[in-house]
């Protein structure tokens, strides 16, 4: 399973990248806005730090505009993945840009039907949004399972990039289903290391060790 980090916070990306835990990065217009930085400048900085795919999202709503923006974003670095929304125009842009050899991440996917179309249009990644489905009392993880089943039935090469991850359980559940990639905020990736019994066990070891009066070095 590949780990993408869902942020434009370069310090947070660097910390995880130094541990070998970053296989790629995803951004979107909201994430860029939150960073307060210029999209090209921050995306270039991320691309220089991370070897894997870095998703940069178009903001035009029409296919022609998306294609123009996508070509422009792709010039930032060789590891750019162009991110387009799962609309009819987004699928048209995906078809054209993937045909030119670019990597495409088709985002804002909320149904298996949408995921089929993205695969047919040549998407490198499909991004089903788990958390936003859960937010409206639908089952985000069930969507991951449906897409996995369909893609396997037909040997579609598009990778399932489980997105809108809000908890550690989202990551482990997506991994069990067989999502190819997860993208999550840095805090959730770091939270994977925490367990109450680890903390409790360590406190006990520290207390017992102090009683021995020994030092290892
Ligand atoms: C994925 O590519 C998106 O940037 C992201 O996962 C959306 O997450 P959110 O629903 O928490 O905003």
From TrEMBL:
<protein>
    <recommendedName>
        <fullName>Probable transaldolase</fullName>
        <ecNumber>2.2.1.2</ecNumber>
    </recommendedName>
</protein>
<comment type="similarity">
    <text>Belongs to the transaldolase family. Type 3B subfamily.</text>
</comment>
<dbReference type="InterPro" id="IPR001585">
    <property type="entry name" value="TAL/FSA"/>
</dbReference>
<keyword id="KW-0963">Cytoplasm</keyword>
<dbReference type="InterPro" id="IPR022999">
    <property type="entry name" value="Transaldolase_3B"/>
</dbReference>
<dbReference type="InterPro" id="IPR018225">
    <property type="entry name" value="Transaldolase_AS"/>
</dbReference>
<keyword id="KW-0808">Transferase</keyword>
<feature type="active site" description="Schiff-base intermediate with substrate">
    <location>
        <position position="83"/>
    </location>
</feature>
<keyword id="KW-0704">Schiff base</keyword>
<keyword id="KW-0570">Pentose shunt</keyword>
<dbReference type="InterPro" id="IPR004731">
    <property type="entry name" value="Transaldolase_3B/F6P_aldolase"/>
</dbReference>
<dbReference type="InterPro" id="IPR033919">
    <property type="entry name" value="TSA/FSA_arc/bac"/>
</dbReference>
<comment type="function">
    <text>Transaldolase is important for the balance of metabolites in the pentose-phosphate pathway.</text>
</comment>
<comment type="pathway">
    <text>Carbohydrate degradation; pentose phosphate pathway; D-glyceraldehyde 3-phosphate and beta-D-fructose 6-phosphate from D-ribose 5-phosphate and D-xylulose 5-phosphate (non-oxidative stage): step 2/3.</text>
</comment>
<dbReference type="Pfam" id="PF00923">
    <property type="entry name" value="TAL_FSA"/>
</dbReference>
<dbReference type="InterPro" id="IPR013785">
    <property type="entry name" value="Aldolase_TIM"/>
</dbReference>
């Amino acid at each position: 399973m590949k780990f993408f980090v869902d942020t434009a916070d370069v310090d947070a990306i660097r910390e995880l990248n130094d541990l070998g835990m970053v296989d790629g990065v995803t951004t979107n217009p909201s994430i860029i806005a939150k960073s307060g930085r210029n999209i090209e400048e921050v995306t270039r900085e991320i691309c220089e730090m991370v070897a894997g795919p870095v998703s940069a999202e178009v903001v035009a709503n029409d296919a022609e505009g998306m294609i123009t923006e996508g070509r422009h974003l792709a010039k930032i670095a060789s590891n750019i993945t162009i991110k387009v929304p799962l609309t009819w125009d987004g699928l048209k842009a995906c078809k054209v840009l993937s045909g030119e050899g670019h990597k495409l991440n088709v985002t804002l996917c909320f149904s298996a039907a949408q995921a089929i179309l993205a695969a047919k249009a040549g998407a490198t990644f499909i991004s089903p949004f788990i958390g936003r489905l859960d937010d409206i009392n639908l089952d985000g993880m069930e969507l991951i399972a449906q897409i996995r089943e369909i893609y396997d039935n037909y040997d579609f090469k598009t990778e399932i990039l489980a997105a809108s991850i809000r908890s550690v359980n989202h990551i482990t559940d997506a991994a069990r289903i067989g999502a190819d990639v997860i993208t999550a905020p840095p805090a959730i990736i770091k939270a994977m290391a925490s367990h109450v019994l680890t903390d409790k066990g360590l406190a006990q070891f520290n207390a017992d060790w102090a009683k021995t009066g020994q030092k290892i070095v």
